[in-house]
Write a structure and sequence with these properties.
The complex is a heterodimer of chains A (206) and B (482). Chain A is an all-alpha fold. Chain A is built from nine helices and no strands. Chain B contains 20 helices and two strands. In chain B, a hairpin with a 4-residue loop joins strand 1 and strand 2. In chain B, helix 1 runs antiparallel to helix 2, helix 12 packs parallel to helix 18 and helix 17 packs antiparallel against helix 18. Classes of the chains: A mainly alpha (206), B mainly alpha (482).
């Protein structure tokens, strides 16, 4: 138990510290690297609560794809972040108000939750979930996604299809007059089409 | 649950959606292989698909059927909304053809995206689960963001798309936050389970918070005040057929979803949500009436008009009675029909240089093009709510329901707002008939436009003679929710 508690405090402390560094680091590349550190530690927290599939997804998707994409964007675009932050202070009051409202709501909600209203919540949980103690996360998710939630899974597929079409519609430009590689023409080219033998007489040009 | 016990879901209730989904993918392949010269073919096939899907909707019985583990539901209410949505999208696709030809927008992705957006709308209308609600809404919104920016070489169109996307993403985030709160406090996302939970137990403050956030997210989608800021800019910037689409089918879908969310799982909370709807309704009616007065761009004016009309439709929802819901459904049908005609006329406003969007370009239309002026005048009178045109009856039913539900103040404010709003509709008529002609609008309208504008004008003119079919269908749809 004590090892788990220690691991929790380690991961949690590093997560919070790294998340803080993301927003205070002056160099945007450092920000992204701290973001990756945050993701890794959050994945550690997921492992601790027994959600190993989520932990893996977090590492593969967020660290592997999203954060690397961020890194590319930050490195390739020459954005002056110091200049971007110039007007930052004038938004502090309104940001603080919104933050306070959200905190107050959270306190209200958590207060109501701990006051015993949560009894209704547990009872309605669908009984179709496979027991966590018997099967692994991946197994349980697989059983649900392709049965109970097949409709939602397919709908997610349609949303991704629209995103793909949208990206192509808005960015792909067909420029005329561009030479493209035509592989079938290359492969079907014969020796006679490309090589011409000339009999060159000594002492003369062609 | 082991995989052996799994019973595959009944696909028949979702047949219209399946047809649209598979058809959209097939048309996408057709477009990719045949290139942009297949645009007309893809457009016509898309309209055909929507008609087939509509046939399947009509063929389904009126009984309430749930499928896909209860996350998808069809009933008389969803049938009504689906027919209206399919009608809206297919008419807009036909109206857009002429515009696409002239404005170099003939690309096959346009009908495919409209088809996918329509699929999302149908899924919204049939959602019986918070996740299904969100997936349908996102599918619809994502496709609409793209077609708002479809003229990617036009600065205004890309600006409209970007604005819509950023604000829409914010609204989706708010909606998701609300959905997660509801799930956290109820332990279920299914509307049927939520309804039984709320009928039984004392509602917790967390659920009410969730409901407020959910309502805010949905209010954005129907552009009710104070979540309306995106509407004028997006309507003005988007290509005109896209604006016409925004003002019709998505509004119906979002309003139907709003009704289903509030009437389905939340009837026990009606005391809480009624205040929200009354506020949204009053604010939308007043702002829609007042802010439109200063507009000179007709698309911007129609944006404020749509904000106002959504306020009027919300009056019926605020009543929360079967009569109120019936009123909203009739309102949406008449509103969509009037919009077809008005946007048909806006699509016909062009000269040799291109599209005209200024209200003053309509000056003297009564002399240069009397038929179009007559149709537009009729539609404007109807939008203003002058009897005996259809727009009057739309307002009449929602106000009647509000009075029956005891919401006198709401009804009085609504009537006052519609009087103020009549000013800017009548101003357009005044410009058309009493101002000196501007440069004549080149208006050999295309056949499709002439047909749509004519049908829309005749519908608004003669609705009062035989309103019974729409009234009874709407009543049937509304009672399915109670």
């Amino acid at each position: 138990m004590i090892v788990q508690a220690l691991a929790f405090y380690l991961f949690a402390a590093v997560t919070v510290a790294a998340a803080f560094m993301v927003i205070v680091a002056r160099n945007p590349v450092h920000s992204v690297l701290f973001l990756i550190l945050t993701f890794f530690n959050a994945a550690g927290l997921f492992v601790l609560i027994g959600a190993e599939f989520l932990a893996m997804i977090l590492v593969v998707v967020y660290v592997g794809a999203v954060a690397v994409l961020f890194l590319f964007v930050v490195m390739m675009l020459d954005i002056d972040f110091v200049e971007l932050r110039q007007g930052f202070l004038q938004y502090v009051p309104i940001g603080a108000v919104i933050g306070l409202i959200l905190v107050a709501e959270l306190i209200l909600v958590i207060g109501a939750n701990s006051a015993g209203d949560a009894s209704a919540a547990g009872s309605a949980l669908s009984s179709s979930f496979p027991p966590v103690s018997e099967v692994s996360n991946t197994d349980a998710l697989g059983r649900l996604i392709y049965t109970e939630y097949a409709y939602l899974f397919e709908a997610a597929g349609m949303v991704l299809l629209v995103a793909m079409i949208g990206a192509i519609v808005l960015t792909l430009r067909q420029r005329p007059g561009v030479r493209k590689q035509n592989i079938s023409a290359q492969v079907s080219r014969r020796r006679e089409d490309g090589v011409e033998l000339r009999d060159v007489k000594p002492g003369q040009g062609i | 649950m082991s995989s052996g016990e799994f019973i595959s879901p009944d696909l028949m209730p979702a047949m219209p959606e399946l047809i649209l989904a598979c058809g959209a993918m097939a048309l996408l392949m057709l477009g990719v292989f045949r290139g942009d010269q297949s645009t007309r073919l893809v457009t016509l096939l898309s309209v055909g698909l929507m008609i087939v899907a509509g046939g399947f909707v009509l063929a389904q019985g009126d009984a309430r059927v749930e499928t896909f583990s209860g996350s998808f539901v069809v009933d008389a209410f969803s049938h009504y909304a689906k027919i209206l949505i399919l009608l809206g999208s297919s008419v807009i696709l036909l109206m857009a053809r002429d515009y696409q030809r002239r404005e170099n927008m003939e690309r096959f992705e346009f009908p495919v995206l409209v088809l996918l957006a329509t699929l999302g709308m149908l899924m919204m209308v049939s959602a019986n689960d918070l996740i299904a609600l969100y997936m349908g809404l996102e599918l619809q919104s994502l496709a609409l963001y793209v077609i708002a920016a479809f003229k990617r070489d036009s600065e205004r169109s890309t600006e409209a798309g970007l604005k819509y996307f950023v604000l829409g993403a914010l609204a989706s985030g708010i909606l998701l936050y609300g959905a997660s709160l509801i799930y956290g406090f109820a332990g279920t996302t299914n509307f049927t389970a939520l309804a039984s939970l709320m009928g039984a137990a004392e509602t917790s403050i967390g659920l009410i918070f969730g409901l407020v956030f959910l309502a805010a997210g949905l209010a954005f989608k129907i552009s009710a005040v104070p979540f309306h800021m995106w509407t004028p800019d997006v309507y003005e910037g988007a290509p005109t057929p896209v604006t016409a689409l925004f003002a019709s089918a998505p509004k119906v879908a979002a309003m139907a979803l709003f009704i289903r969310v509030l009437m389905g799982p939340m009837p026990g909370l009606s005391g809480e949500w009624q205040q929200i709807i009354v506020f949204l309704s009053i604010a939308s009616m007043v702002l829609g009436a007042v802010a439109a007065i200063g507009q000179s761009n007709i698309k911007r004016l129609m944006a404020y008009s749509s904000i106002g009309h959504m306020g009027f439709a919300l009056v019926g929802l605020a009543a929360g009675t079967p009569e109120g819901i019936q009123g909203v459904l009739i309102y949406m049908a008449i509103y969509v029909a009037m919009n077809f005609g008005v946007f048909g006329c806006i699509l016909a406003m062009r000269d040799k240089q291109g599209m005209l969007e200024n209200i003053n370009d309509l000056a003297g239309l009564g002399r240069t093009n009397p038929m179009m002026a007559l149709a537009l005048a009729l539609l404007m009178f109807s939008l203003a709510g002058i009897p005996p045109l259809a727009g009057f009856f739309a307002k009449f039913y929602v106000f009647l329901a509000a009075i029956q539900a005891g919401l006198y103040a709401l009804a009085v404010i609504g009537v006052l707002a519609s009087v103020v709003g009549a000013f800017y509709y009548l101003r357009i008529i005044k410009i058309m008939y009493f101002d000196a002609p501007a440069d004549a609008i080149e208006a050999p309208m295309s056949g499709e436009l002439r047909l749509v504008v004519g049908a829309s004008a005749l519908f608004t003119l003669f609705f009062f003679l035989y309103p019974a079919p729409i009234l009874s269908v709407a009543e049937h749809a509304a009672t399915a929710l109670f």
